[in-house]
Recover the amino acids of this structure.
């Protein structure tokens, strides 16, 4: 199983970025997906979640209205569109997939997003 994030970077406040996550080795549509982040203060928090079929998504209040999660089950991709970025969004962003009918989960290696002027 492979879960690989890409698309992080360094940008100024107010900027936009869309990290993506490519998965392989599993029946992708049988896995829910989420983006979690690890802050510089070592807090790990869920940012966004989407069901395996892509029909339901949830965004946490801290980023609601600025972030959007989506998935492409044909290309086995999960994306996190991030707009109006703030310094407090600085973190390592991880993609996680969770089996719908099992307790298995797989994490990517993370991608760094730094928002600073």
């Amino acid at each position: 199983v492979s879960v690989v994030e890409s698309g992080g970077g360094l940008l100024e406040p107010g900027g936009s970025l869309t990290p993506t996550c490519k998965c392989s080795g599993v029946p992708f549509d049988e896995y829910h997906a989420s983006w979690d982040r690890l802050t510089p203060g070592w807090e790990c928090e869920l940012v966004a979640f989407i069901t395996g079929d892509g029909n339901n998504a949830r965004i946490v209040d801290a980023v609601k209205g600025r972030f959007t999660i989506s998935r492409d089950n044909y290309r086995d991709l999960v994306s996190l569109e991030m707009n109006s970025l703030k310094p407090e969004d600085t973190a390592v962003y991880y993609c996680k997939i969770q089996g719908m009918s099992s307790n298995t989960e797989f994490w990517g290696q993370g991608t760094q997003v730094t928002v600073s002027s």
In short: DSSP finds no helices and eleven strands in the chain.
